[in-house]
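All the exercises in this workshop are built on plain-text protein records. Sequence and backbone structure share a record, each on its own labelled line. The structure tokens are whole numbers drawn from a learned vocabulary of backbone shapes. The record below serves as our worked example for the rest of this section.
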Amino acid sequence: MPSIDLTGKAAVVTGSGRGLGLAYAHALAAHGASVVVNDVDEAVAEAAVKSITEAGGTAVAEVVPVGTTEAADRLVGRAVEEFGRLDVLVTNAGILRDKVLWKMTDDDFDAVLTTHLKGTFTCARAAAVRMREQGEGGSLILVGSPAGQRGNFGQTNYAAAKAGIAAMARTWSMELGRANITVNAIVPVAATAMTETIPAFAPYIEAMRNGEPLPDFLRKGEGFGTPEDCAALVPFLASEAARGVTGQCIGIGGDKVALWSHPQEIAAAYADGGWTPDTLADVWPTSVGAELQSVGIAAPRFPEA
């Protein structure tokens, strides 16, 4: 594989003040890209920029909450103003408002959909317009989640947004193919402020912060590691080495990288003249209903004590 060199390219990474977003921004800068860091907290954004520049990279901050057209235009405009172009967009910004269905409010639902789904849409649209004008291709890297692939208890809003992001990646890969713009969704799994709230993971994350490595059953078996483990996928997808990769959902975490399948029909049955409720009931158990699909994110498989 050729060396990954993003020198001369400009990137926007939304929600990149800390956590996974900051790791993505650092990885892009380390491979030569100039980066617009985005966060809603000015101090956090400026600290992120400082950490990148002190490591030898180039970065500026744009403080704005994503979700609106105006915010998207500001982010793309900042890249063009500072670096003269835009080549890479990573839509990482997100929030959580977890509740079960019967307790979730309209505001809980709307806030998460606005940041994740509409934020991805508005930023990607603005980036696509600019990249098409430049005529040199580009990369849209959308951030998904296992919750969007399989659902997750208490995350109606988040799972719906992330499932929509996967669908948008597939759709936009077709629409932007002629412009040589690749579009992929990444599905990261890492030790973050969100995952450390899961009791089973908490002691391992705490040990990691104290300098102990994560055990192999997490890094390999669960594909669970640090934000930096996930970050390698971003400069790869932004590079010429991945120019033929588009419309995919790619998982990464710990020592594991994986390709998620697209939804597809797995069983079918036919009835001359169509179906009735009775004929469906007759054939269901032995045809399409013989092996129903599972839902939810599988619980971690911890070794026995």
